[in-house]
Amino acid sequence: LLLAAVFCEACYVVIGKTLTAGLGPKRISALINLWGLVLVSPLAIWQGLSFDFQAPRLQDWGLLAYYAATASVVTVWLWMAGLKRLPAAQAGVFMVFLPISTALMGLALGEQLSAMHALAYGLALLGVLLATWPGAAPRR
So what's the pLDDT on residue 10? Predict the structure, then answer.
């Protein structure tokens, strides 16, 4: 499953790079979210019929709105803006920051980090450093 997820992320980078050749980052973000809305609406309507919309607190709705805006709009827009300026292979290297940032958030929430995890994250950061070091790109 993890390899399948990595493959999906790789497709995301390559397809995103292709899209940035003809569309702006904001438009790509809007289209991705519109497509997601179309795909999820039938199930959302079906579940919404039996959902008590008054049960979640106002704070819960605020967190949901924040998550939707950041995870679905802002991050896609920023990622596509970056892809427009970098080769897909170099941009793909930055995907390693997803698990690293997740680990940092876990630490902030009180989760434990083992020495093996710290080593793995350190190696991942070293890989990013080596892949993006000035002059590391092959000469053309």
Answer: 85
